[in-house]
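User: For my dataset I need records formatted as: sequence, then structure tokens, nothing else. Please produce one.
Assistant:
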Amino acid sequence: MPNHGAALRFGPYRVHPVQGLAEGRDEIRITPKALAVLYALAERAGDVVTKAELFDTVWPDCTVSDSALSSCIHELRCALGDDARRPRYIETVHRRGFRFVCDCQCPERDRRASADFGGSGRGRSDHRAGDVPPEVADAVRWLSESGGESRVAWINGPDSVSNNVVTRCLLRRLADEGKGYYCTGRANEHFGPDDPYHPLIEALDELCQQPGGAGIASLLRRHAPSWLAELPSVVGNEEREVLRKVTAGVSRERLWAELDTVLNTIAADRPLVIVLEDLQWCDPLTLQWVATLEQPMAAPIFVVVTWVSGGKSGEDPVSDASERCIAAGCGTKLTASGLPGRAHESQTARRCLDSADANVRRVLEAVDILGEPFTVEALAGATGESESVIRLALDGLEDDGLVRAGLSGAPGRERDSRVRYFLADPALRVQVRRNTPASRRRELHYAYAVFLRGRSDAISGFRVTASAHHFAQAFATERAIHAGQDAATMCHRRAAPSVALRHLRRVLQLLRSLPETEIRSIREADLQARLGSTLAVVEGPGSDSVRLCHERAWNLGAEAEASPRRFSVLWAVWVYYLSVGPLSRAQEMVDELARTAETLQSRELLLDVHHARWTTALMVGDVCAVRLETQAGLSLCSLIGEGPTAMGRGCTLHTVHSSDHDIGVCAGFFAAWACVLAGKSEEAKRLLDTVLAHARAVGHPYTIVATLVMSAAACAAMGDAQSTARLSAEGASMAAKHGLSLWQIWARIYGGWAETILGRSATGLEKLADGLERLNGSPLRLFRAFQLSLAAEAQLAAGRLDEASESIRNAFQTSLRFGDRLAMPELYRLRGEVALAGGRLGRSVQGPEADFRTALAMAREQGAGLYRDRALHSMEHLHSRERSRL
């Protein structure tokens, strides 16, 4: 027998009664009692060690219950990644005790530790039976031949638990091969499609919880702040709010770019293995991201995907994605075999359920409502039982082969309460469901939902989506509505508007089940407005569905009493009419907004009213009103400060995230626009410089992009081609980086104008035409007539008079239909200039002169000194030409 101070080795592990348990050079933290149990079993490897013997060895001076020993065994199985059904290390011998079934060695004596005990050989036989499946060895070999490039292993099996056995063995083998980062994420059976990117977020969260996780969190903070903001267990509430502010409006393209950057940075140090399980239940966006790995990343990033087939080719999106990946040469497919003994488990399940005590029954009832995989933490939340009672019940079910502990975390570093469990026999769940009254199921759904909402990280995606599902199943309509709205907000935050749409429609259905009251009407109005904004992103702002939602919102909210919710409805309707017209309706909504804000006497809402007024005033060409409203808005900003109100509501429908922009910056660049139109170019330039500096200090990408592009537009309006080219180039680059497509198109139009004016007409006009062509299919009319006026000016400068005439004609049609008067004086002037340049006037100059006089009158009416001076200059040019002709 080895000395009690000697270290024992088994598999990749080393155990010492004082130094503890280690895997290679990495310590695996376990409790002292669990360490004592492990050493007592390992030094008698191959023999049955009775419970009495273990109690005498580990607890010699006190009396403890069986649950203390069961808890230690459970902790050890988690730490070693062992399976009670197919043990590699610790075998339960029913009614007798436990047996360590893996060969042990004592290096100090260079012989097998079990030899002195006359082991029966059972341990050696079981160790061979428990070896990893051959497909795992194939996968390890395939990954090792990757040459340092990313690869995807697609594992398809008959059920989730069979897949999990393979992934666990695979991670063990990869850990044996050398050091690396390992993390796991799973889709949920009940609401996986409604929780965008959950498997990836869970994997990142797990990565940050491992040794060295602080370094991973720092990399996320630097390279992927949008993802870090979704990890409540990593960042505190205060930091999360800051992160969500600076990442608001993130696009799908930006999310993916951040993720790719941080993963490549992590894997540059050592290989990264990401296991994504049960993707047959995942959201489409997660699967789409995995599909991007058809183009290998530079670093060794290995993604292991498991799924259970759900249909034929074309009906199984995971299978289809795997075939594309394999065809691209970046993937391999493995088939996990089913576990043995399944034919006898249904009878065992029935016997177990018939003889189960109350605790086991409560656990099984909760398992049914939670779905798979489930955790001790979740079961405790649903049943109200302590985790020790839950573990004891699970140990009994695990000993009977009805429950299997799955993989959680990196090998050997599982956290006990987060270990995933699977039902080994689906028949058990069917039996439980048949025997559980509907009232009990609703009770469990409600208890678990309340548990989730009570967590400090309740705003995280999984908990929001899960609570919405469970409240709905519990028929807790009010709470399901609130949770569903939170879930929709979460989806918008993750650039998943299609998923948000499903949540909102579900919430609307729940809301309509409530009695009809005035309060319900305004709530539905608010929901219709949110639905319309979301539909504008999914279907485009011009769709009939978007129009109907906003009309319904206005009809429901028109007669409601003044309230913040009514204000939100009015704002959404105003945004709709501001974006697609007519502007006369938008002005009506501004008046309603003002009356509501004045009734409520809210500074924040009054600031929003100024915001709506300065935006609308610019589009209708009221320069004086723009200056007055922006000055009033900036004064209110200084009174309110840089709190939550610093981020203003959106003023276009082109993206639902446009609501997140700094309102002080918005007031600043609209004020600069007013200075430009008033003819005060030097003041406008100083103000634009100040506003852009403030936007950069805020650090919010959407605000910076909007400021750059709007500043480029203002510089184009005043004729400063050099500044326009510089600002539009930076704005286009940043818009592309963050996936802000509309701002990228606008920047291209302004950049094209600048290049043409600077003498590079070939490329400039091409950019202009391309940008305007991309806008043709959009009903968004903001600044469209102004952009067409710039196109006409550039085409006139390049001598393309027919194209200039067509641009002017389209601009007039847009202005008349939309109600836009911003560029109207300039359009009349340009039409006269094109007529003059055409040389087809003969002896008559009445047409151009009438256009110039109309432009002059309109410019004076608007207070637009810039357009007034241009109209006067054009008239002077006309008269000079007439005098020279005479």
